[in-house]
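We modelled the chain as a single entity of 313 amino acids. Its sequence is:
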Amino acid sequence: MDSIKIFIPATVSNVTCGFDILGFPVEAPGDIMIFRKTEKKEIHIIRIKGADNLPYDADKNIAGVVSRKMLEEAGMPFGLEIEMEKGIKPGSGIGSSGASAAGTAVAVNNLLDSRFSKKELVPFAMLGEISASGTRHADNVAPAIYGGFILIRSYEPLDIIRLDYPGDLYCAIIHPMVEIRTKDARDILKKNLALKNAVKQWGNVAGLIAGLFRKDYDLIARSMEDVIAEPVRSLLIPGYDRLKKAALQAGALGCGISGSGPSVFALTRGEETARRVKQALSRAYKNTGINYHTYVSKIATDGVKILSDLNSV
């Protein structure tokens, strides 16, 4: 294989109570990337579409950082030309940097004849997250690589678990077109937690995972509460309280901030309810003067997909 074209799905991370440990991919939106081997053992970003502020310098671009580390680990057998089409806007809260990092890891691994396992790909992809936000987290890249509902039980050592979940669990997303940098959203979090809040959050994480396995929608609903990040981060999202109220009134199981925001997601039982929630989110936001996009999707069972059409993006 001398070239590869891939699709990388957006991801919802944290899933309310699971800060840095829970995430899942959706079917849309997503990024497209093309990788071509070159004889000259250098890495070049030759095209970026859909994001004007991303660097072409391979040492500063997530795709360049991840691919260089992987190729060096493999003895630098070839160089790369990389094209990126960003369907997931940077700063959207639905895994833009994670998509670039995870997509690069999967694509380069295919060009290396699958030298690394999926679990081994996650630390490479996390290097991209470090370059983007300064933090090492996997709740976007692991779902994008594995697909399905993912729990990162531990980072040291890395322990990734693919969770069972109800087949008719859907997600509605609204993406207000304002940018929130992940680093900024992390910097405002409290560094110390009250024990009672920690206990409550632990209970919610355990309840959410149990609800997914038992297909207990009532347990899922009452576990989708974040007492740590949401009270602070919601202040960065215009109209957040109105969005959450609208989603719950329209029948959502729960609603919260996707990643660091500004995207807001809601889980529902079934597609019909998800579409009703999407409409409610849209009505709640249409008079704010802020542009937005909305999406409805099942939790995607697959992560990065290899596309057969290798034409330029």
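As a brief sanity check on the tokenised model: The chain is about 35% helix and 25% strand. Residues 69 and 124 are 7 Å apart (CA to CA).
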